[in-house]
Write a structure and sequence with these properties.
This protein is of the alpha/beta class. It has 2 domains: 269 residues, TIM Barrel; 87 residues, Immunoglobulin-like (Sandwich), CATH 2.60.40. It contains 10 helices and 16 strands. The strands form 3 sheets. Strands 7-6-5-4-3-2-1-8 form an 8-stranded parallel sheet. Strands 9-10-11-16-13-14 form a 6-stranded antiparallel sheet, with helices on one face. A hairpin with a 5-residue loop joins strand 13 and strand 14. Helix 5 crosses helix 6 and helix 8 runs parallel beside helix 9.
């Protein structure tokens, strides 16, 4: 069964955009293995838009650009598979892709069969240039059926940017993950606004179909296709913590040949990844609002996460009354928490928990409910 937990991997768009090519994909596959990312759970290597010629071939099939991909897609898929990884590609529900290359509208079954023959394991399916009278849910359902008819198990990553109240129907058409927002860029406000726009919709996300709040920007530092000033390392940590807490698919968007040690270690953080990959896949409760949201999340094995965020420009303070979680002092229970970044333990706390939070930073506590 695909996508029991949020898919993890790498996507070419954030850094390379139209400059994607065969060598970049091979080098990235090598880096995922050599830098320990495969062992951390990242397995998909996905080519985004701009991989084909501008016109279909005489047989109506999409033709890979022979300059960018001289060995062809089957050979490239074989190389990725030889590393113990999975190979992903991109198409679009419209007549053209977002960058103007051939889309799959009316060619869904031909394209799905082609992808299967190449050894594709993952398809990102965009939403540009959809004919005005065409129905979005029907187009995604058509490709969902085409992928199942292809003879190969292919993870279906729907990318309609949150249109048509996508969260209410996308699970029913066979998708395994779905983009629910516009494109991310490499800035604090971009990832903050994207994440917070989805808080009320996370209850639709769960095993076999996860809310995808776009690719990660960790470690990009203002370089690449979606550059917009970049973030500090503290902001990248907050970004990754939000994506893990919300159980979004974790698709790295940076250049792995240039990623710094801090962000590489962040992307391999076992504590955060275990929250993202928690098998119960429960959405968090939001307690605080505004620039200092607080989230409480149930995990498997009787564990919980209490997460404090400070989106403000000044250091601040977070406080949660356990009564607001339903836990009274008279219940005879309290929480024993551990800060997942520092390892500091709180001991058994009752009544409330307060903590300082640096500007644009977060504090993430993981623990259990215990009798006093």
């Amino acid at each position: 069964m695909l996508a029991k937990t949020p898919p993890m991997g790498w996507n070419s768009w954030n850094t390379f955009g139209e400059a994607i090519n065969e060598q970049v994909v091979r080098d990235t596959a090598d880096a995922i293995v050599e830098k320990g990312l495969k062992d951390a759970g990242y397995e998909y290597v996905v080519i985004d838009d701009c991989w084909s010629l501008r016109q279909r071939g005489a047989d109506d099939r999409i033709v890979p650009d022979p300059v960018k991909f001289p060995s062809g897609m089957k050979a490239l898929a074989d190389y990725v598979h030889s590393k113990g990884l999975k190979f992903g590609m991109y198409s679009c529900a419209g007549t053209r892709t977002c960058a103007g290359y051939p889309g799959s509208f009316d060619y869904e079954f031909i394209d799905a069969k082609t992808f299967a023959e190449w050894g594709v394991d993952f398809l990102k399916y965009d939403f540009c240039y959809k004919p005005r009278l065409a129905n979005g849910p029907i187009l995604y359902n058509r490709m969902g059926m085409a992928l199942k008819a292809s003879g190969r198990e292919i993870l279906f990553s729907a990318c309609n940017w949150g249109s048509d109240e996508v969260e209410k129907w996308i699970r029913s058409i066979g998708a395994h993950m779905y983009r629910s927002t516009g494109d991310i860029n490499d800035s604090f406000n971009s990832f903050k606004d994207i994440a917070m726009s989805q808080v009320e919709k996370l209850a639709y996300s769960g095993p076999c179909c996860f809310n995808d709040i776009d690719m990660l920007i960790c470690g990009m530092h203002g370089k690449g296709n979606v550059a917009n000033g970049g973030c500090t390392d503290t902001e990248y940590r907050t970004h990754f913590a939000l994506w893990c807490l919300f159980q979004s698919p974790l698709m790295i968007g940076g250049d792995l040949s240039k990623i710094d040690d801090y962000n590489l270690d962040l992307l391999k953080n076992k504590e955060l990844i275990s929250i993202n990959q928690d098998p119960e896949a429960r959405p968090p409760m939001r307690l605080g609002h505004g620039d200092r949201p607080i989230f409480f999340k149930h995990l498997a094995n009787n564990e919980y996460v209490l997460a404090f965020f400070n989106f403000g420009d000044r250091d601040s303070w977070g406080d949660v009354e356990f009564y607001d979680l339903g836990l009274t002092v008279a219940s005879g229970y309290g929480f024993r928490f551990r800060d997942i970044f520092t390892g500091e333990e709180t001991g058994v706390v009752t009544g409330h928990l307060s903590t300082g939070i640096k500007s644009h930073d977060c504090r993430i506590f993981r623990g259990t409910l215990v009798e006093k």
